[in-house]
Fold this sequence. Notes:
The protein is mainly beta. The chain has one helix at 148-151; strands at 2-9, 12-18, 21-25, 27-34, 38-40, 61-64, 70-76, 84-96, 103-111, 114-117, 121-123, 133-137, 154-161, 168-180, 184-186, 193-195, 198-206, 208-212, 221-227, 232-238, 242-245, 254-259, 265-269.
Amino acid sequence: MKVIFIILVSFTIFITIAYSDVVILKPDGTGDYTFITYQFPDTGEHWDKVDDIPHDGDTTKVHTDTPDQQKDAYALEDISLTGEINSVSVYFTFESGTPGDNVWAQPYLRLNSVETAGIEEVEDGYAPYWDSTYSEVIGRPGGGAWIWSDINNLQVCIGLRGPSYGHAICTNVYVEVDYSPTNIEEPNDELPVINQKLIVAPNPFYHQIHVEFGIQNNKNVNIEVYDLSGRQVYRAKVTNNQSVTLEHLKPGIYFLKVEGLSPISIIKLR
Length: 270
């Protein structure tokens, strides 16, 4: 968070601030190609096997048993935002179907038939399973600066390869856009995260968050906190305007899932 300047008006200090925010985009349709051999369950389209946040292990997945890389491309959710785009990252979770067999996964971004590849990662299938979600900042395909119309035409791709006697399995892939919204004025430097009817502050948090539904609502909702590996690290029922203690969590990135509001909300905590 950067303080740009301070204005004194009627003895009240207002701070015009520039800060970064993130939006998460999940697969929501088939992209330009589907080349990965298998999906589970074997009904529907490949994209809905890799759209869970947090991931669901091998409950839904795409997978291949070929040493030559196979790729899928997935369309992403549309958004309507303004501000400067700082970076675009791909997150993905994959695993080997057989302990001891190395498998590889590689992320890509695809824009107007042009692709930029990320780094190919390797997993060996030894326990603990599904313990690593990889992420990488990937530049704009074709070069240049990102604009918002790019994001709504963007596709995320995943490439998998492994031994012919084993399986390379991918269970989720998604995109995170880091951007700086248009400068706003706040009476303090602690900005809440607002998602639909939900307000969570502070974020980044330290030991505690405050949860407010944003409307007059006294019903209970379920909150769940997950780490990047998909492991649930906290669960509770809360009411409107309640503080939640998370001092047992190590510094890092988490996902807060709130059930009981419409729609179900997922917020990234830092």
